[in-house]
Design a protein that fits this description.
299 residues; alpha+beta; Alpha-Beta Plaits; 2 domains; four-stranded antiparallel β-sheet
Length: 299
């Protein structure tokens, strides 16, 4: 009879642990998914911002005899622009390259309609994402204009502002959902742990009544919480990266390739899972330690 009771308790305990682990894994999977989306959304946002370029133009009027001198000056200017704080990437466009691009855009194959070098040489500049901010774009243009040899800087400021505002709005929504999922993670994991501890409330009180100290009673529950949190986080992360790998392989893109960001995401999810599990365990156990014996039947 005693053996059957022990087996029943073991099965119930195992079932309770499995339920807690699955709950933790599911919640952390959703939390990690939002983290992955947020990381990739931020990187994709930066990528789009880098495609918004400004064009710095050199003087188009000079004597042919000064061409060598002008070429040297433009090369020095190009090198200086590459070192500027707002500049992410700079591409030098010669007069010949500008003429070819103009003919290509107009669908012209002949040189008869205009002279080859009527377009000025220029530098196409991709700004760093933080300088695409409408409050900083003017500062970036001013810095570029101050470089000797540059006579004009042009950009589509309206397009930049629209793109920046739209991307910022999307990132705010994703961040908001990530915070919501974090709150849900705390609530759901806490409820699962509370139900698990509730089933052991009489054992907790019995240990306390026979003289066990609170720290001694808490220790095995905390160790178990750490193990369950780690297992749940591991299952959630394995599932997450499995789903993410399938998704990226289907669309033919790996998105962010920065392994350091993935490492921090894994560490964050693991720490959140263990921390919430341990905290919920301590709170739930402490509650029953402070409860009177008679109240255990009504808790």
């Amino acid at each position: 009879m005693a053996k059957s009771v022990d087996e029943f308790n073991k099965k119930r305990l195992r079932s309770s642990n499995i339920t807690v682990v699955i709950s933790i894994a599911l919640v952390l999977f959703l939390l990690g998914l939002m983290g992955l989306i947020l990381i990739n959304a931020q990187k994709y946002s930066d990528y789009i911002k880098e495609q918004l370029v400004v064009n710095a133009y050199f003087d188009e009027n000079y004597d042919a005899k000064d061409s060598v001198k002008i070429a040297k000056m433009e090369a020095e200017t190009f090198k200086e622009i590459q070192t500027l704080a707002p500049v992410k990437k700079a591409t030098y466009i010669s007069r010949e390259m500008a003429a070819k691009e103009a003919k290509k855009s107009m669908g012209i194959d002949s040189d008869a309609l205009f002279e080859e070098n009527i377009f000025p040489s220029s530098i196409e500049i991709a700004l760093k994402p933080e300088y695409v901010d409408p409050t900083k774009i003017d500062e970036a243009i001013k810095i570029i204009k101050s470089v000797p040899g540059i006579i004009d800087v042009k950009n589509d400021s309206t397009l930049m502002v629209d793109v920046y505002n739209n991307l910022s709005r999307i990132l705010k929504w994703i961040l908001g959902f990530s915070i919501l999922f974090l709150i849900l993670a705390v609530v759901l994991i806490n409820n699962s742990i509370r139900l698990k501890i509730f089933s052991k409330r009489f054992i907790i009180k019995t240990m306390q009544l026979v003289g066990a100290k609170r720290r001694f009673i808490l220790k095995p529950f905390i160790i178990e919480a750490i193990v369950l949190g780690a297992i749940g986080a591991a299952i959630g992360l394995l599932t997450l990266f499995g789903v993410w790998y399938y998704f990226t392989s289907q669309i033919g893109s790996v998105f962010v390739q920065d392994s350091q960001q993935y490492f921090w995401l894994v560490l964050l999810v693991l720490c959140v899972g263990i921390f919430i599990t341990v905290l919920s365990t301590v709170i739930a156990t402490w509650r029953f330690l402070k409860t009177n014996v008679d109240d255990l039947y009504y808790s």
